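Q: What does the assembly look like in three dimensions?
Context provided by user:
Components: two
Sequences:
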Amino acid sequence: MTGPGNLVPAPVGAAGNARLSGEPVLSIRDLSVVYRTMAGDVRAVDRVSLDLHAGEVVGLVGESGSGKSTLAYGATRLLRAPALITSGSVQYQGRRMQTPTDIMQLSEHQLASLRWREIAIVFQSAMNALNPVANIHSQLTDVIRAHLTLSRQEATEKAAGLLDLVGIPQVRLRSYPHELSGGMRQRVMIAMALATDPEVVIMDEPTTALDVVVQREILGQILELKDRLDFAIVFITHDLSLLLELADRIAVMYAGQLMEVASAAEIHHEPAHPYTKRLLRSFPSLRGPRRDLTGIPGTPPDLLDPPPGCPFLPRCTEGTDDCKKIDVRLAKVRTSPDPAHLTACPFVLPDVAADAEDASPGRPAVAAAASQPSTEELKP
Amino acid sequence: MSSQAATPVESAAAARGTLTLSAQGLSKDFRLGHGYVLHAVRNVSVDLYRGAVVALVGESGSGKSTVARLLAGQEQPTAGTIVLDDEPVHLSGRRAFRRYKSEVQMVFQDPFASLNPAHTVRYHIERPLRLHRGRMTKEQLAQQAAALMEQVRLSPADKYLAKYPHELSGGQRQRVAFARALAANPRVLLADEPVSMLDVSIRLEMLTLLDDLRTRFQLAMLYITHDIASARYFADEVLVMYAGQIVDRGPAEEVTQQPAHPYTQLLVSSAPDPDNLGGALRGFDKQQHPGGNAAVNGSGSSPRDGACSFSNRCAFADDRCRAEAPPLLQISSSRAAACWRLDVAAPSVYSGREGGGDLTS
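A: Here is the predicted structure of the complete assembly.
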């Protein structure tokens, strides 16, 4: 069933953008997730729509508590109570599948065969996600044999091949996690995620705990593997500067909602949303002239009782009273050369992002869109 | 190792104020058992000046935190001296230790672990006030605690003083940690990765606050970080540490814009570069740093005893590097690097050196 023979080689050329026109592998529509508490529902993810195309790296950036991990785990139904998915659909169309499936409709049994086989996750605490009392060999073959029908011998060979893939000598199969450095453990986790040739790999802060030098080596390796094995990546991080370099497209999340979605270059040079602009001015740059850094004073809103209108309003320097009335929804930035540049702020660029996107589901050219069929004017 | 490198390098931080805390030739060995000794810190000299920030940059395990712990008096150095205001520091006995502590305070990386979950913020602030500021009435105590909370911009003070750590966000907790350190009325603040556990959007605010406190209280500050970009903005002088030694030092802007030591160059080139979309990440430094990370290569490739500790990862290493460790060699009046091969590794820095002659240690 598997093995390199099944893999489609990645098209040569610029990754990501060139392939935006194709059907998405993963298409999240109107996904809402709440955490049910005694005090009420915490709206962790609020009507989020996002597409992921084959071979693309989509960066999901936001502060802690912005719902970026909840979005990724919600879309793969990895959350359990008190988390509750209250609305939305997630269409998955793998190249090994005849027809798209809605992940939200799958039974537990069907989910089990989808997870890892099609969508794999590198977890946030990957440094500690390995079992300390089992060696690398048994942890890798465990995964392989759970999801693929291989003999013990074949599984061992596959495990050795996986370590090769991430640049760890095969003798390390016998090592225990404590005998590996942080960077090596992270590589093992990545190898494990790639064990079954998944089409989508969700990486939740995979390099946050690592040194910059090691981080860079691992990111380079991830991109190399992606080009070779042709999987798509959802890369979750709070480090926007990293995403600018790594991702094809970036989705900026704030208080459970998407604030802006655009190509990395657009986010870097022509950010539309005030939050993105402030985020870009929050990290010191090592290169170029020293610039004024402002940061973002204030804290995100309480999602138990979110304020009406734009959630960023209390921290926004460009906000007006009208911001309290808007229904936060992504809309196209018309002046942008990137046809898929969407922002949730209708006021920052007058006459630019005025009308909400009227996206019928499955419109191929649109990368991410607010999929509510009603088209209401956001401008007062 | 070669002879003591008593560098005549003048710190870029010296322009700010008078020398407050000076450590010369600090070393710390940890005995690991079975005869193994870990040289965590080797011959490190740090000078902290009033109202100035010195950044100590390096990867995890490079000995940055050990330097901070030595300066804070938490560990006894194996060798070297610490001088506070021209007086050698001898931390024998509890009184001497407490007196030293009221001058030199530390802020830790993890505000989730450094505050006691069983006590309110008021306890955390009032205890050092009572220990270090002498006897005072209850009213005075409450008043000073409230004043400290205002200094770190936690207001209304009474509301925050009554809270427990778990009721605060990461940024608020770190503010409490700052206030606690300031309660002792110190002149030296050692900040060990004070913002790396915080959200990106809050980090800058906290650094601005630290910068502000540094100016207002005229603190001599050591800022330990692995983020060399923040050191560029925040520090006067940058010291780059590798394997327990200072390998590069100089004014913050110079070290970050014209890194001299090959390790500093690696560190700078590893920082995310938004202007180079995707390009640099693919095929990262395959040629320049074939060794990759020392930890990845395992212990087999660790440098020989006496060799330059970076020689196993360095593209410029030659026989001399593998035989003899370089001391800090002076490049200019405020700049030094521990590298034999600066002429090849950093030609622009080397040719711009003052005097134009050979480097002197």
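Follow-up: The first helix of chain A runs from residue 68 to 75.
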